[in-house]
């Protein structure tokens, strides 16, 4: 019996407004792929990301021509050469992992040789004026790890406001490529003075070489500058860690290769996410076992998640139940 492929677009409202240096959004738009093979159905989710030239319509158009190959039995390894890294490949790859686990009668964790444990995730504070960011930080000051969205003017004041409002939390700063050659050293110095733990993608991708020539008292993590394993070698000496996201890598299969390559080259590992549902986070929770930094708070930012979803207790996220994925 041939497989049956279904693809749909879903929207999940965000609790309030989520703002980064590139703009604001009030809902998470995701694409869900289901692959049915007999009695087993595997599914996966992706978030098309405008920064990488992706749209809902474009990702749907990318998936459609693969339908005959998927129905004929295309596997994860064939998929790697059929599509480039990106959201479309991610949804299909994760659906194939889920299908593989269900067909084998074993969890995806078992297929990966893992005994997964709960993880401590960062919680993201949306970009705003310093006073508003301090209010967000105050409301989440009990969380051990906060991710602070930056990338505007006066970021030093934002960092200071968050630090004063959440004095006991570790802070990750995410500039989303929003700093410049003129202010990057000033902002890094301010972050160092305030005990920041990590700075993520301070400069635009392609301008990374500037980091080779300035003091880095705080570890710097690449995000927009790294997508797949082949990107790693060019980042050695510029960055101290890499942020691996399934939507950038094009699925769990490539993300594992990327993680392993980064470790071989001595880089720290962050596993991050776009703003999506528990279905998008579930495979990333397995990828993040043993990571140095975990940022899988997407469902915590939503007004409504999938049911069943991942279980969060404060900032701890548990491994996915097979009723959700894997």
From TrEMBL:
UniProt-listed Pfam families: MR_MLE_C, MR_MLE_N
Known EC number: 5.1.1.-
Sequence ranges assigned to domain Mandelate racemase/muconate lactonizing enzyme C-terminal in this UniProt record: 130-221
Cofactor: how bound: Binds 1 Mg(2+) ion per subunit.
Required cofactor names: Mg(2+)
Keyword field: Isomerase, Magnesium, Membrane, Metal-binding, Transmembrane, Transmembrane helix
Entry's transmembrane regions: 267-288
Domain of life of the organism encoding this protein: Bacteria
Enzyme class: isomerase
Stretch forming the signal peptide: none
Family affiliation: Belongs to the mandelate racemase/muconate lactonizing enzyme family.
Annotated protein name in UniProt: Dipeptide epimerase
Provenance organism: Mesorhizobium retamae
